[in-house]
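#struct-help
A.M.: can someone run this one for me? Single chain, 816 residues.
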Amino acid sequence: MDHTKHKKKRRKRSHKSTDGGGNQHQQQVSKVDKQKRHEEKLVLSQQLRQLSSQKRLKECIELYKSPTNDELRDAHHGSIVVDCCARCGDVQQAEKIVYDMLSTTSQSKSSQKDIKVIPAYFWQEYKQFSYKTVPIQAWTALLKGYVHSGMMDKADSLFTYLCDTHRAILLASNNGSKKRKRDAENGVNVRTLNTLLRGCLWTATSLDKDKLVGGVMTASRAWSLCKDVNIEFDTSSYEYYISILSQSLQCKAAEECLQKMRVQFGIERGKHIDPTMIESLVVCLVVIARGYVLLGNISDGKRCAQEALEYMDTSTSNGTGPTQPSSDTFSAKKQQHQQTTGGKKAWSHSNRDADGGTTGRREESNKLFRSHRLSELRSEASSLIELCSQESDTINSNIAKLMLTRLLYFSGGGTTGKDATKATTKTSSVDAEEVIKQWIHSLWHSFGLKEIASKNGDALQCIFHLSSKKKKKHKQLPSVLSTELCTSLQTQISGTNSVISRDSGYINFSKVFTPVNEESEASSKAPQPNKKLHIELGSGSGDWACLQAKLNPSDNYVTVELRSDRVAQTFAKCMLNQQQSKHSPLANLCCVGSECGSFLRERVKKDTVQTIFVNHPEPPTQTYNSVTDEEPAHMLNSQTIISATRCLQSNGKGRLIIVTDNLIYARLICQTVVRVLENNNELVGLQGSEVRDLRRIESFGRSSVHLYEGQPSASIGHFTPNRFDRGTSYFDRLWRTGAGKHADMRKRFIIALRTSGGESISYGSKGDRSSFRSTSGGKGKAGSIIEGKKSNKKKSAEKQKRRNERRLARREQKQK
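D.P.: on it. Structure tokens below:
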């Protein structure tokens, strides 16, 4: 009996042993499956990253949403796709992906289908979430999409929400929750902050439902919030924030922040400094110096500019400063571009080896770019020091008046968003009062009008009805201005109601360019001839337009740029203009901050512009077929070209001139123009007889649009000085260093269009617009009178000599 029990027990043990072996086998199978799935997830991540780096948005989304990846898809993959959407300017798609990721934690899939429209601030519905489901990388990528598109109201709300959530997580982690401790480590970080600060640098402050967002207001709030959630600032954080403060002319606050940066990183003058920090220090000092000079604080401006030069001299002595490219670098770059020309990094695989890894080209380009940036900063610092050597009262003269007439801000952002490619029309019911109010708030906070006006106590007393004891205190000045205060500011400071029409919202350029200095007031009373109006789209920091305004003072120029920091730089160059040891603001230049298409459509009257210039525009965010695919986000989209055509003077008087170093993009622009002309025949290409110094290389659309190669000259309205070794623009100087591998170093590709009908006008070869040639259908008559001036038929001695030599050579060849 005992023996039987022993057998039963042994049988049970044997059964358990068999089950244990089965479990072990299942565990091994499960382990293999997990490993296989993990590898498949890695492959999917690699594929999504590659599509994102090449900005192939459509394929990236299709791969992410493919049913075959339902079991593999996780929050990490979603973060990659959100980043791709942000890079390509599709904010709505980025919002949808984050919303789906967030909704899976709290809602069933059936309830998600019922929601057709995603709430504008959808994150506010979720007081708590897990970073495992929606990683901080996804939130940061969404934030990047907002700031690139200029949606600072959403960016401000999202960053505040993330900081509040992170603060709650930190409090919970102190109670010992392991999950909350992990969330605290993976929460909002300095990269998230820097993403927002870049957006604040690119956009000026605006009014959103009685709340000031964007620019210095959002940046200041974010800076304070980071102290509450223990985010440590890096050098980029300080550089962005100091630049924002200096742009708003809060130079004292900017210097205080710079001192905190020195303390945090142990920076002391006269001692060795990490080369990686020198660039940030120099940037901060130069922007502070620029702000001081604009305010008229000459001694402080000169001090900061000299300190910046000291740091750059230190970096040069240590071998980390700017270097000039050698002839070998130049020739190697030339050989490279003999094989391939044009295209951004995402357009080609020239920066990758056969295995897909990166080559050393990008590192070399980054070195050249950083060296060029320091060279530009050195040039500006030297110019500021030279300017400060002059009398101080001539520098700050009438700057407040000019700011209210020559600095117009409507919108900002990092790049053109996808919404700009959609067909829109200007509505008849324009709230011009709201437009003017937004513009004044941007000037008041982000461009320093508040700081400039505060120095004029009499004006403030009239505007704000302050007592004599309170008029100099900044605390008494309101942050949110009423419509009446906005009107009072314009009337008291600039002497005009507004340069923006309160009926239509259009800009009155005759008011914009009305002389404001006392010397020209007497001459302004006399009848003024209508000056020609030229607009440059995507003007960058304004080097080219400022040069054109100097060389051609008889015409008026308008720069249009999306990024507000570049608009501020252009305005500073206009105000601190220095030529031949004399200082006087450029009287024929106006700076505009806006998306180019909406500006032309909503702020410029029809048939009023003679020339629209586009110099080296940014290519599209992604490759596409211009015939079959949907148009991606880029400045020169179809809608912008249509809006430009509407603004140009009719009957052959208006011109659209596009210059690029990118052959691939030049061809794409020609194809876009041809597609626009299918429904709008108001543009025609300039013929060879109208641009004799350019060489035609291709024609598009039944030979109506031509692509030329050559150097920009007077034939297309570009004024060039007799000697300008540094280059006419930032890009010209950048190419001379050998940087910018996507560009062609020597060649320029030009698309020259004019409005159809009438007689076209081509400018003289010497760049003097008093000399014209009439060309009607390519056949012009010498000596014809255009605008009361006779064309000059006399050839220069050098040209006559070359012509005689060619004739002699042909005669000798015939005799042989």
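A.M.: thanks! The chain has 30 helices and 18 strands.
D.P.: also worth noting: The mean pLDDT is 79.
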